[in-house]
Hints:
Blueprint: E1 2-11, E2 21-26, E3 32-33, E4 39-47, H1 52-69, H2 76-97, E5 105-106, E6 108-114, E7 117-123, E8 127-132, E9 135-138, H3 145-151, H4 157-161, E10 182-184, E11 194-198, H5 200-203, H6 208-217, H7 220-233, E12 240-248
The chain binds calcium ion.
Calcium ion is lined by residues 45, 199-201, 238-239.
Amino acid sequence: MVITSSGIQSHIGLVREENQDSAGRFPEHASGAVANSAQVFAVADGMGGHRGGREASQIAIRILGEKFEAEPADGIPDRLRSAFEAANLAVRQQGEANPEFQGMGTTLTVMVFSGDTVCAGHVGDSRAYRISAEGIVQLTDDHSMVAEWLRKGWLTEEQARNHPERSLLYRALGVGSDISVDVYENIAARPGDRFLLCTDGLTNHVSDEEMLEIVMAEEAQEACERLVDLALERGGYDNITVQTIVVGP
Length: 249
Ligand code: CA
């Protein structure tokens, strides 16, 4: 598998005083053949207090990078789980050690391309999608109360979209001593497929159909910029972060 191009864009949005989203790719200029080493893409959406959210999302991305730069001990799914556990611990310890950061947490959504396989790891309400000529598929489940109520049929899509508590999470990094990580193995990827990672600052304003249309029409970086611009045009009150990855043969 080859990563033929990738794009990244993050914006503070129109209302917040700070961008508490973080994004990372490891190695930093990840593109080209995915040989034995893993190529890792991630977004994190921090929450809690003044400065805390930014600190939490930055810690999560940093720990993830360290874990994947270290020599691989075992398979990607296990490395993902241990990276999430280490990030959870690091955010929690920093929160406990510093009153300024108390109660902070973060989402973390990660895609790893290695050899012929694609895996994802996920906690929170950031999202990973696969996009191809056949359509757009959300690969991750949102760990928000509203998404859970929607899955149970207690809310309609319309009610969920405008729900006042839609940012309330039941799972996030840094808020408990144990973390349950959703790990997706063997994600299908064919030449020409695109993958998108984003925080809820995008999905609050931009529909899946619009993401499909823009990502299929534009180069990887231009797609990220157009998606962020669209969210801003529609009010963009939250921080907005997007990454796109295009795979070749
Ligand atoms: Ca957010």
